[in-house]
Amino acid sequence: MQKSNRDFQMEISVYKTEGIILKKADLSETDRLLTVYTKNFGKILVRAKGIGKKESKLKSLIEPFNIYELMLARSRNIDVLANSYAIKEFNYLRGNLENLALAIYFGELADKLIAAPEPDDKIWALLVRAFLALDQKRGDLAKIKEAFEKKLLEFLGHPSFSIISKSTEREKLHYLQSLAGEEINSIRFLKSLSLTS
């Protein structure tokens, strides 16, 4: 049986990729805007339609910092989430306030420092390793934070913290914010938990 032109268009307008949700924001009462770092396309924006409805089957399948296989429908402006399933859920990370605070910080840094939807295997692997490390019961959170910041800067082609005369947490934050062009908001949360000075 020969496929119609409409069937062919539907096939090419839906695609799959693995992704980590870095951020979730309200677009409307029921729609959410997701910032996702994908394995195949880099950082993209995705619209999750109707996800705020009580009966939405995707509601529990768009938690930040988990790894998902996403089925996305192409759209003129922002692609739309058609379906997803969790490949890896980071439950310990979500249940531990300090680890969750660092995950939020990592997500914000990645969102604000990565500009274009350009795939990068090193950044994908860094995000996966960082969230895996935060999902462990033991681990030196200060070392995990330092390693993530250093590697993200390196992979994005930015000079490391070594260019700063005094490598204090305050100077590091100022440097990161100058690269991002805006404030890193999650740092206040980290300070309140004494995860940074």
Automatic annotation (TrEMBL):
Keywords: DNA damage, DNA recombination, DNA repair. It holds the Pfam family RecO_N. One of its GO terms (biological process) is DNA recombination. GO terms for cellular component: bacterial nucleoid. The keyword Ribonucleoprotein does not apply. It comes from the Bacteria. Residues 14-84 form the DNA replication/recombination mediator RecO N-terminal domain. Belongs to the RecO family. Involved in DNA repair and RecF pathway recombination. HAMAP family: RecO. This is DNA repair protein RecO. The lineage of its organism: Bacteria, Candidatus Portnoyibacteriota. The gene is recO.
